Amino acid sequence: MLTGRYLGLGGLILVLLISALAVIYSKYQSRLIFIDIQKQERALDQYEVEWGQLQLELTTLAEQNRVEQVAREQLKLVMPLRERIVYIKP
Fold first, then answer.
1. Angstrom distance (rounded) from CA 84 to CA 69
2. Under 8 Å CB-to-CB from 66, ≥6 apart: which residues?
3. Rounded CA gap, 60 and 63, in Å?
4. Is there a domain that residue 86 lies in?
5. What is the largest CA-CA distance in the chain?
6. 56-82: per-residue pLDDT in tens?
7. What distance in Å separates the CA atoms of residue 79 and residue 64, rounded to the nearest whole number?
8. Is residue 82 part of a domain?
9. Is residue 13 part of a domain?
10. How big is the chain by its Cα radius of gyration, in Å?
């Protein structure tokens, strides 16, 4: 009779320990995932900053006066006379 009680009590303690270890393991895994999420969010923030800088650089390089300046200085192009310009209507 006492042996059965001790076996039942031992089984319950074993189940309790296994349950406690499972909780500890799942908490550890969730912390690892949280750390990875934080790293990915920091990387995303860096990419957003870089994207903004590239957009600003693109806007600067694509300005009309910048294009004309590069055409004059590097390509040695000149604006044609007004009477030599041909307009094409769609």
1. 21
2. 60
3. 6
4. no
5. 116
6. 999 888 887 888 888 888 999 888 888
7. 14
8. no
9. yes
10. 36
